[in-house]
Specification:
Keywords: DNA-binding, Transcription, Transcription regulation. One of its GO terms (molecular function) is DNA binding. The protein has 5 helices and 3 strands, in the order ααβααββα. With about 130 residues, it is mainly alpha-helical. It has a single domain (about 15-125), classed as Arc Repressor Mutant, subunit A, CATH 1.10.10. The chain has a 3-stranded antiparallel sheet. It is elongated, with a radius of gyration of 19 Å.
Length: about 130
């Protein structure tokens, strides 16, 4: 997939908005979690942890609008709503999970790079 070279200030670009939805703090976690199975709202919220009801609702609505999440509201009492990935959502979630897996695998290297950076910065600050 080729990434187009658009101006950095072109904030209304449609693919940029979708990328922001996919890689948002909660979007990533929702997509990865839904790879396993469908979830009811409350169990998805528990599985993700530390997300407010409002933020999870907004994230799910955004991902649903983008065609990545399917919302299945069953006409029962009490109401039951299940969330799952669409085919498009599954494809996106697999890409997001690959990035998350890479981050987990390479975290020791990132931590070492941070230490090296911080030590060099401290050294420069003391040299002034």
């Amino acid at each position: 997939m080729a990434v187009s070279t658009q101006r950095a200030d072109d904030t209304m670009c449609p693919h940029r908005l979708v990328l922001e939805h996919l890689t948002s703090r909660w979007g990533v976690l929702v997509l990865i979690r839904l790879l396993d199975r469908s979830y009811r709202f409350s169990e998805l919220r528990r599985a993700i942890g530390r997300v407010s009801e409002k933020m999870l609702t907004q994230t799910l609505q955004t991902l649903e609008r983008d065609g990545l999440v399917h919302r299945d509201a069953k006409p029962v009492i009490p109401p039951r709503v299940d969330y799952s990935l669409t085919d498009l959502g599954r494809e996106a979630a697999e890409q997001v999970r690959a990035l998350a897996d890479w981050t987990h695998r390479r975290m020791p290297d990132v931590e070492q790079a941070r230490r090296t950076y911080d030590e060099a910065r401290d050294h420069r600050s003391r040299a002034r």
